[in-house]
Design a protein that fits this description.
By secondary structure, this protein is an alpha/beta fold. It is built from 8 helices and 13 strands.
Length: 246
């Protein structure tokens, strides 16, 4: 399994904080935001990690994170020329890096405490399909992808920011894919907002019945709004004080 962190995009929702810097470099309590998804991937045992960002900010990530030696992993960097290409477009840029192996993708603004190691080991053994990770979010799931499941945990549908959510389970920005993911991306068409959507990609796996969903306990998308960024800061401070994270 190889790792990919998406730290591109325009982050217009966080302006003016993101006018001259990249969202994923903003502080969340005592660390830059990207440290949290990076730490989650490192703990999962994945040792080769690609950081995707825009040409404006790629150097900042290299300055901050370097070769990865300080974390005991190997880091690589790639530029997404079109910052509005969409998450699936960003994933496609990891094809050469993945080199036919499975891929663990984590959005650079996602902070969570879930231990990905067992899922990585399970998926590497299984070898085919995809896993999405959901979280129960009764009030706000409208602004995320929404996963509908039956009582056995089988995924029935995934919709991107639906007006009328079919469940209270939000799709997080954590995904595991087999090596066919790049073929699936090649068949995607841009959505109404002009992006190649990760939800459309996940629906390819759903259609062939190789998609699984795992529920995680706490998760926050620090990049959605100023309020969520503030909430992420407070939540991380609280988790550190309680010893839940370091
Ligand atoms: O965070 C979870 C949500 O992420 C999911 O529930 C949604 O299904 C999924 O579409 C996505 O929604 P967002 O609207 O929050 O995505 P956003 O455009 O904010 O991008 C998420 C991250 O991906 C962000 O850290 C920047 C990065 N990104 C995004 C785009 C569009 C890229 O690196 N390149 C891109 O082209």
């Amino acid at each position: 399994m190889r790792g990919l962190i998406l730290a591109g995009g325009l982050a217009t929702r966080l302006r003016p904080l993101t006018q001259v810097t990249n969202k994923h470099l903003l502080p969340v309590y005592n660390k830059p935001m990207i440290f949290y998804p990076l730490d989650s991937i490192i703990k999962s045992g994945v040792k080769e990690i690609l950081i995707l960002s825009s040409s404006d900010h790629a150097g900042h990530f290299a300055n901050l994170l370097g070769s990865g030696d300080q974390f005991g992993v190997r880091l690589y960097y790639v530029i997404q020329d079109n910052p509005k290409g969409g998450i699936a477009n960003a994933i496609s840029l990891a094809e050469e890096f993945a080199g036919g192996q499975n891929l663990l993708v984590v959005l650079g603004d996602n902070i969570f405490g879930y231990d990905l190691k067992p899922a990585v080991e399970y998926f590497d053994k299984k070898g085919k399909g995809a896993i999405v990770f959901g979280v129960k979010m009764p009030t706000e799931s409208k602004q995320y992808g929404v996963i509908e499941m039956d009582t056995q945990g089988k995924v029935l549908s995934i919709e991107e920011k639906p007006e009328h959510p079919k469940s209270d389970i939000a799709q997080t920005g954590i995904y595991m894919y087999d090596s066919r993911v790049f073929d699936f991306v090649r068949n995607l068409k841009p959505s109404q907002r002009g992006e190649l959507e990760v939800t459309d990609l996940n629906n390819h796996y759903l259609k062939e019945a190789t998609l699984e969903c795992r529920l995680i306990d706490w998760w926050i998308d620090a990049g959605t709004s100023h309020d969520e960024l503030l909430r992420a800061n407070n939540m991380v401070a609280e988790k550190i004080a309680k010893g839940v994270i370091k």
